[in-house]
Write a structure and sequence with these properties.
By secondary structure, this protein is an alpha+beta fold. It has 14 helices and twelve strands.
Length: about 350
């Protein structure tokens, strides 16, 4: 292993059981973490998963994190300009109809819905009643009329009107977005000690955020591993896995050498895709039949191996331990050979 200046990683001795040591080094502190679904509220109510639940989320390669977040940095020149930053913030946070109303009146029989807008919320998000009406008028199943600055009236005009269809349409109206990016349910502006602003979000959508002018596309951060892989590639996903695991362990007050964490990240991503550490991923896809069977679903693995005539070459650790054979690690990697000519020179020991 090459030296990593950032983490002080030195080379390892040939034959060292790096996999076993890494598993023990991460597993031991993992058992001492809080064994409950623990979430911590961050700055400005941006919530993310912490502790053991987050580690499980990562090593299980969940397609979507429970609480996706993003950290958005801004380009040089505007990163200290609050007015410009706020303009970008307005384009990012998704504002739904339900976020800007005080209440609503619906009549399923006549198919009408009246929205009562909240002046303070409209002012906070810097939008007007006209903007809301304009956005809703794009729906083909509704006719929209703005009664005044605080009231919008809609009438359902879809075919085959039933109470269920009308109610479904009205629910969709309340959940429809007026401005912002889909999936970004909350965004907050934060200022660092050096005066620069960043935007932290609950929800993640890298592809859409990258399209906004003023966003530093090279310094976007998301804790959604699969999204990072789609946008930036497998190497970025590998780095994110290692970084997230390292940060979670540090936050819990434990110290684990980065080399062990990096090895886990490499094992999960070395095929070009993200695999979980489990029976459906790394452990369940080992070449050795005995190694797969030793983990989980023993009967299934032995049955399949028998049916398809698999051959186990006994090159790994688990399978050699199972059959009592010396493993190929440590002193077990050494093999001595003697030439036939040299054997002839060895004098037989005289019997007494």
């Amino acid at each position: 292993m090459a030296k990593d200046e950032a983490h002080g990683i030195n080379g390892v001795t040939p034959g060292e059981a790096v996999g076993v040591v890494a598993a023990q080094s991460i597993g031991e502190p993992g058992t001492q973490m809080v064994l409950k679904a623990f979430h911590s509220a961050g700055i400005s109510s941006v919530i993310t998963t912490k502790g053991l639940p987050r580690i499980i989320e990562i090593v299980d390669a969940r397609k979507k994190p429970k609480f996706p977040i993003m950290e958005i940095r801004l380009e040089k020149g505007i990163e200290k300009n609050y007015a410009k930053v706020r303009e970008i913030w307005r384009k990012i946070e998704e504002v739904k109809v339900s976020n800007v109303i005080t209440n609503f009146d619906e009549d399923l029989k006549s198919g009408t819905l009246i929205l009562h807008l909240d002046k303070e919320k409209l002012s906070f998000y810097e939008i007007t009643g006209k903007t809301v009406a304009s956005r809703l008028s794009k729906r083909e199943d509704l006719s929209v009329e703005q009664m005044d600055s605080e009231t919008i009236k809609m009438k359902y005009k879809g075919k085959g009107r039933t109470a269920h269809m009308v109610r479904t349409a009205f629910v969709n109206v309340l959940g429809s977005a007026i401005v912002g990016i889909k999936g970004i349910i909350k965004a907050t502006v934060q200022q660092a000690e050096d005066g620069t602003y960043t935007i932290t979000t609950s929800g993640s959508n890298l592809e859409e955020v990258m399209k906004i002018d003023g966003v530093d596309k090279w310094h976007l951060y998301s804790n959604d591993i699969f999204e990072v892989m789609r946008v930036y590639g497998i190497d970025a996903a590998r780095n994110l896995i290692a970084h997230e695991l390292d940060e979670v362990i540090k936050e819990e007050g434990f110290t684990v050498s980065f080399r062990h964490i990096a090895l886990v990240a490499d094992a999960m991503t070395h095929t070009g895709n993200i695999k979980s550490i489990g029976r459906h991923g790394v452990a369940g896809q080992k070449e050795s039949v005995f190694a797969r069977a030793a983990y989980e679903e023993t009967v299934k693995h032995f049955t399949n191996a028998s049916v398809f005539g698999e051959i186990d070459h006994l090159k790994g650790v688990a399978e050699n331990i199972l059959i009592g054979k010396q493993i190929g690690l440590g002193t077990g990697i050494i093999r001595l050979t003697v030439k036939k000519d040299d054997l002839k020179k060895v004098k037989p020991k005289k019997e007494d």
